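Researcher: Let's run the pair from yesterday's discussion. Sequence first, then tokens, for each.
Model: Starting with the first of the pair.
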Amino acid sequence: MKTVSFKTLGCRLNQYETDALLTQFHQAGYQVVDYSSPADITVINTCTVTNQSDQKSRNTISNAARKNKNGLVVVTGCMANNHKEQLESNEQVTYVVDNERKSQIVPLIDAHFKGEMIHPDSFSRDVFGFETVDQSLHTRTAIKVQDGCDNFCTYCIVPSVRGRAVSRPIGQILENVRSVIDNGFKEIVITGVNIGRYDHDGLRLEAAIEKILELPGDFRVRISSLEPDGFGPEFHRLFQHPKMTPHMHLCIQSGSDPILLKMRRMYTVKSFMNIIEKFRSEIPDFNFTTDVIVGFPGETEADFQLSLDLVKEAQFSHVHTFRYSRRKGTRADRMDDQLEEKIKNQRSERVRKQAEENRLSYMQSMLGKRQRVLVERVDGKGMARGYGEHYLPVNFLTERRDRNWFTELTLDGIEPGESPTMKASVI
């Protein structure tokens, strides 16, 4: 039995596609092993959103090649699209498979071991060609509803490496959800490149999610990263449904309207805050997380202070902070007033500190409240860890040793540290 390991970098969509590949390999008779172990095949699902992402991907490729000197190294993901020729010339890499053909990696490897040398480009393109996940590294699983993006933000390389926006037929989505529920998954994460732009034969995102919520079963639904201009005015009403989790990663990128305009973001700070206020008027403890880019070309100290003020005002419990990274082929790369890395690093640190304050403040506001926690793992001492519906990590003692079950808890403490965790007790 051939062994295969995986390493995933980047977004939740990449994580879903890795899980789908893991399932395909398992069904094809391969043994899945931990990435730290030697393997006959190593699949590296790369990211290219920043220069730092490219460097992490290159380092991972080199480490995998050193660790598995006689094994196959398959590189896929966004870097495989953005730097395809460079990767194909790398002697450490056996195959480079672009995003459009990622779902065809198993037949490619099968052919290799049969002695057939097939170029990955000979396979057909199909961004939705993955099998239903039944083997996963997680207790939750993603449902891919959309791929590609038509927004063309001035800093972003994603439309070049993921292509134009395309939506998955609702029938396929519902069948996928039914199958993963039958496979035992209890949390469904709706994912894609720009899911707010979902539109298949006139069916928009809200209507698609409503159909998912109508399906029977003991499961809950979480929304992954979402753009603030990609849904209707009544979207917040979906979260009144008991299967919806009151958490959303809503991307702001900057708190300065002039910078948002230069980024070609299709909203204003005021319209963004109107969304926050509308949600919290219905669900006061709704948990928002976000992305912020610091050091965009021409960002002044005053522009940055507006971003910092917005992070505090919106009370994001987590902020994924990006230091602006020049990407060849984007309009921002050609803009004047490029900032020094030193300034970007300083601003990133200031956002990080404010986000940490926000997180502790939000955790304190949740003390005494109930959470329905999905258990992800239990250690040998009976300490269970999982996530509540508000996407807060929770620890509690249990006599059970299995995972992937719901339990009702009361949040009664905070464990401090680099990554604070809620402590809880069984109701």
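Model: Moving on to the second of the pair.
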Amino acid sequence: MVLDAITQVELFVNVFVGVYVLAILAYILTSWVQLPYSLKPVQRFLYDVCDPYLRFWRRILPFSAGPFDFSPMVAVLALILLERILFAILGRLH
């Protein structure tokens, strides 16, 4: 089966967004618990991958809700929205 370039880009974006959303979820979950020493590199990797993007949203959000951090929720919604906009643009080119 031969896939054209636009379909390949759509597939790449879909997989990238899915994996990044899962990485953000794993980052959130690992920040709630104390991991054993053997899993600290995994936690550090998730921090290095997710925190720059989440920090961007923490700076933009106009409110602080005490101990609650809504930046992961906003970040995931922004990724999904960007994916849908990109799919709409690519759909017009297809």
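Researcher: Give me one sentence on the second I can quote.
Model: The chain has one domain: 5-93.
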